[in-house]
Amino acid sequence: MSTLLSVRDLRVGFGRAPEDNEVVKGVSFELAAGKTLAIVGESGSGKSVTALSVNRLVDFGGGRITGGSIAL
Q1: Is pLDDT above 80 for 66?
Q2: Cα gap 25→51, rounded to integer Å
Q3: Which long-range contacts (CB under 8 A, 24 or more apart) does 21-26 make?
Q4: Where are the domains of the chain?
């Protein structure tokens, strides 16, 4: 199967210096076509920020992607 979504070393930060205030640090995963992916973790672990970043919506919440790549 082909890769539908690839996230590599995703880094996301907030504030005036997002590089210094990263809340997502080095997240990587792949999603193959026809498969399902579940992201689980403790409260505050970055699940929502990761999802917003994949959809390019994190900027609207004051965040910024500071590193890594997202390929759809």
Answers
A1: yes
A2: 14
A3: 22/66, 23/49, 23/63, 24/49, 24/50, 24/53, 26/68
A4: 3-71
pLDDT the model gives residue 1: 74
Sheet strand arrangement including 63-71: 22-32, 3-14, 63-71
Q: Which residue has the tokens 């390019």?
A: 56
Residue owning tokens 């994949």:
54
42-46 mean pLDDT: 93
Is the whole-model pTM more than 0.70? yes
Nearest Cα residue to 26 out of 71, 72, 66? 66
